[in-house]
Amino acid sequence: MKISARVRGEWLQIPCKDGNVTVSWLAEEAVRRYVRLHPVSGDVLLATNNNKPRMVEVRKTGGCVLLDPEDNVVDVLDDNDFVNVRMENDLPDAVGPSTIGPTSNSRFDYTLSDSMILSDKLDAVANDQLTASSDSDIVLDGYHLTIKQLVLLSKGNTKIRLRKIAEDRVTAGRQLVEAILKDNKVAYGITTGFGKFARTVISADKLEELQENLIRSHSAGVGQPLSVERVRMLMALRINTLAKGYSGISLKTLNQVISAFNSSCLPWIPEQGTVGASGDLAPLSHLALGMLGEGKMWSRRTGWADAKYCLESNGLEPIKLGAKEGLALINGTQLITALGAEAVDRCESIAKQADVVAALSLEVLKGTSRAFDSDIHQLRPHPGQINVARRLRSLLHSQAYPSAIAESHRFCNRVQDAYTLRCCPQVHGIVHDTIEFVHKIIKTEMNSATDNPIVLPERGEIISAGNFHGEYPAKALDYLAIGVHELASMSERRIERLVNPVLSELPAFLVREGGLNSGFMIAHCTAASLVSENKVLCHPSSVDSLSTSAGTEDHVSMGGFAARKALQVVANVEHVIAIELLAACQAIEFLRPLKTTVPLEEVYRTVRAVVRPWDKDRYMAPDIEAVTALLKEGKIWNSVKGYVDAVKDYLDLESRAPSPTSVSLPHSVAPSYLVHQDDDEKNPPTKKHCADHQHKDNE
Question: 684: which of 26, 92, 153, 384 lies 20 to 30 Å off by Cα?
C-alpha cells in the first residue's frame, strides 16, 4: 500500500506495507523523508520535541477530512490516496498555493521552533497591515539612497518602490541584452562562461542553465549567517544598483526581488567567503539562490525554512533566470557596502556621544575647559577639532550652563590636564573627520553601478570593465576602524583615571568599603581587553591580496573582512564608552551635593533611569549592556542635543574664567592692528574667538 503525503509543499510517496501502520507513523515517516531530501529546511522541523518532528494534523485531500493519528492507515485510506501533513512549525495558510482544507485559528497553529521568531509571528498580521498601508515607502532610482534610509530599510517596516524613470532604464538595459542575443553576438557573462572560462562560448539553448549553474556553484560561503537586518540592507542595496539600469536584468525579475524584500523573505547568507573582487560573489550568490527557491530563507510567516516553501508561503514564486540575469544579481560590492553603511551609521552615533561622555569624565575629574578656547582651535582649524571643542564648551561650565563642580576647584594648583582630557578636540576631531570622509565614499558606492559587464543602452554597447572591485569601500572601512578605535583608546585611559584614587582623588575603583567591594576594577579590565583587541582588528585587511580564478582575478580587495572588522571595532568602542559613562556617573555620587551643568545632569538622569548607583558590589554585566543599549539607540546624545543647539549661536558662551591652566595680563600687549588682522584679504575681519560659532555643525 502506498500513500502520497504532502509536507511543506513537497509530495512524497510513502510505502505503508499492508497498511497496518498508524496515521501518526505515516506523518512521521513523511517528515523523516522530507528532512532527508531537504536537509536545509529539515533542520527547522527537527528543532523541537527532542529532534522528533511533531505533527499538528493530517487531512485527506479528498473532502479535507481530518484523520485520527491513532487510526490504522488501511482503515481510513485507500491505496494511492493523498494526504496533507501539517507540522507545528507550519502556519495554517503556509502550505503553498494548493492549500487543502480549512484554516485553523488556534493559538497552537502559531507555534514555531525558533523562539526568536515567535514575537514577530504573533505581530505578523498587524505588521503586514502597517506596511501595506504605509505612505513612508522608500522610492529607489539608483542615485539617491542615503545611509539613514538604508538603515531604516533594515528594520523591516519600510517597503521599496521603484521610480518610473528607473523602470524605464531597467527595461532599456534588458532590451539591449535581448538584442545582443538576437544577433548572436559574443558578450562576456551573457553568451560566455565566467572568470577563467570567459573565452568559452555557450550555446543558446544552455544560456538559462549557465545562469543557474553560476548561482549554485558560487553559493560557497561559510560562517555565521548575516542577521535579517543585514540581509535586508544587502538586498536593498542590490535592488538600488539594479535600478540604475546598467545591469541587464529584466524588470520582471527585479520586481520579484523587490516583492521578496517587501515580504521580508530573506535568504540565508553566510558572512564569510568574499574576497571583494569580482564583487561579493559568494554572499550575493546565496541571496540569488534563495530567490531561485533553493537553500534557506526566513520570513515572519515561516521562520527559517526551505526557500521555495518560504516564497510560496508569502504568495511569491521562485525566479526564472534569463540570460545575464544571474550575473546581474551577484556581481557587485553590496556586502562590503551594506556592512560598511551600518558601521558608518554606528560610528557617527557613538562619536558624538563619546564627546559627551568625555565632557562628563573631565567634569568629575575636575579638569578645565580652558583648553577648548575657540581662539586656540582657530589656530589649527580642522573642522572636526573645532566642532568637538565647541561641543565640549557647550556642555561644560559656562554662563549658559554653570557648574558647581567646576566652581569648587576653580583655584586649585593643577596647571595642566592629562592628554586624554585636554586633547579631546584634537583626537576626537580627526575621528569625526574620518567618519565624514568614509561616509562620502560609502554613499557614493551605494549609488554606483558595480556590475561586469556594464550594459550601456544609450550607446548600444556592453563593456567588460572593473567597477566590481571593492578597493574603495575596503580601504575606507579599514581607515574607519583605525579612526573610531581612538575613541576607545582615549576612553580606556580616562576610565583608568576615574578608578585610580591617585589620579582621581575619588575612592579606589569608585566604591565604598574597598576590599570588601571591588567596584569598577574588572570593568576597567574589560575596557582594556577590548581596546587591545581593537589594536589587532585595526590591521588593514585591504593591504592583502590573493590571486583567484586561475590568475584571471589577480588582485582583490579583501573588503568583506574590512567591513566585518569595522563593525566589530565599533561594537567594542560602544562597550568601552558605556563603561566610561557608568564610571563617570558613579564618580558624581562622591561629589554630591554639588551639581554639574544642566546638560550633563540630564546625561546622569538618563543613565540612572536604567542603572542605579553602585553602593556595593553586584552583577555588573547587565549594567554595561543597559548603558551600551542607551548609546546604540542614541539616547545619550538625544538627552543633550537640545541644550547644545540652544547655545550654538550664543557668542558669550566662553566664560574664560581664571584658571591655573592659563596666565593673562590685565591688558593685551599685542599691537592693536593685530587684534583684528586677518591673513585672508578676501574675508572680512572677524573676532576670532567667535568664528567657530559660525562654523556649521552637522548634528
Answer: 384
